[in-house]
From TrEMBL:
This is 2-dehydro-3-deoxygalactonokinase. One of its GO terms (biological process) is D-galactonate catabolic process. One of its GO terms (molecular function) is 2-dehydro-3-deoxygalactonokinase activity. Keywords: Kinase, Transferase. The keyword Kinase applies. It comes from Qipengyuania pelagi.
């Protein structure tokens, strides 16, 4: 079976043949230039001989504007509850299933949703069974960062932070970054400085991203790192305040982004460990695939 995670920015597909992993990538749901069905067919065309085995997708493939709408399963939810929202795509030329998302009232007592991150969380529980007992805080950095509380293999509650999307918009659509090639400072130094500012006064610190370049002789790259540090420190501080029980987190995601979050966690006095996001999502989809035979034809 082909398994994949279709997010806002990327489509990532995996199959295993003769014990070897093959991968394909494509555009995310927010970057499509053709319909979701046409895009998926085009990306999958090199694997035409495997399509009869079926395709299992999680993430934005189940959103209202995507391949086939799937429901949100209310938390608390374990993998069995998640599997009950699994849907087949009726008009597909080959067997296609899409995982449900999850919903909850978050720590701010507001409605919240996730699509795709639940596969990573349940996959992490498969890869590390110690996470399936007791209470744990799992953090999934990304465009929309998720902080989830897992208790005895159930996702109890989670909180979304718009940190990644906010960073993308502020670096591309705001006045904060300017071109001053003669200025000094690298991105890592700026990030470290930002971590020291964002945990206490994030909004008051944002305009200093610009003024550091105008009158502080800081480079654009330094300022970009500084902005990143401010936003991540602000997320850490707000997450601790909202959840009220964070002293250790498990970070799940891409290595580069997880490394930044580990630095922010250390600055906030939070212990952290890391797990590979792609390994977790595929482990979660492997677990979900076991429920497909139970879906009525």
């Amino acid at each position: 079976m082909i398994k994949g995670d279709w997010g806002s920015t990327h489509l990532r597909l995996l199959r295993i043949r003769r014990g070897e992993q093959d991968r394909l990538t494509g555009p995310g749901i927010a970057r499509l230039t053709s319909s979701p069905a046409e895009t998926l067919a085009q990306v999958l065309s090199p694997w035409a001989e495997s399509l009869s085995e079926g395709v299992l997708l999680c993430g934005m493939a189940g959103s209202q504007s995507s391949l086939h709408p799937t429901p949100y399963i209310a938390c608390p939810a374990d993998v069995g509850a998640w599997s009950r929202g699994l849907s087949s795509v009726p008009s597909s030329e080959y067997p296609t299933w899409i995982a449900a998302g999850l919903s909850c009232q978050n720590f701010a007592d507001q409605p919240d949703v996730m699509r795709g991150e639940e596969a990573q969380i349940f996959g992490a529980l498969e890869l590390d069974p110690s996470l399936a007992s007791g209470t744990h805080c799992l953090v999934l950095p990304g465009t929309h960062s998720k902080w989830a509380i897992v208790r005895d293999a159930e996702i109890i509650r989670f909180q979304t932070f718009l940190t990644g999307e906010l960073f993308a918009n502020l670096t591309t659509r705001s006045s904060l970054l300017i071109d001053r090639e003669e200025n000094a400072g690298d991105g890592q130094d700026g990030f470290t400085c930002g971590l020291g500012e964002g945990g206490t006064n994030p909004l008051a610190s944002l305009f200093s991203v610009r003024t550091a370049q105008l009158v502080g002789d800081r480079s654009r790259e330094w300022a970009r790192g500084y902005l990143s540090g401010i936003l991540l420190a602000a997320e850490m501080a707000e997450a601790v305040r909202l959840t009220g029980l964070v002293d250790e987190i498990t970070l799940i995601g891409d290595e580069d982004l997880v490394t930044l979050y580990q630095a922010a966690a250390a600055q906030a006095g939070i212990r952290s460990r890391a797990m590979d996001g792609q390994a977790c999502v595929m482990a979660g989809l492997d677990r979900l695939a076991g429920f497909i035979e139970r879906i009525p034809a």
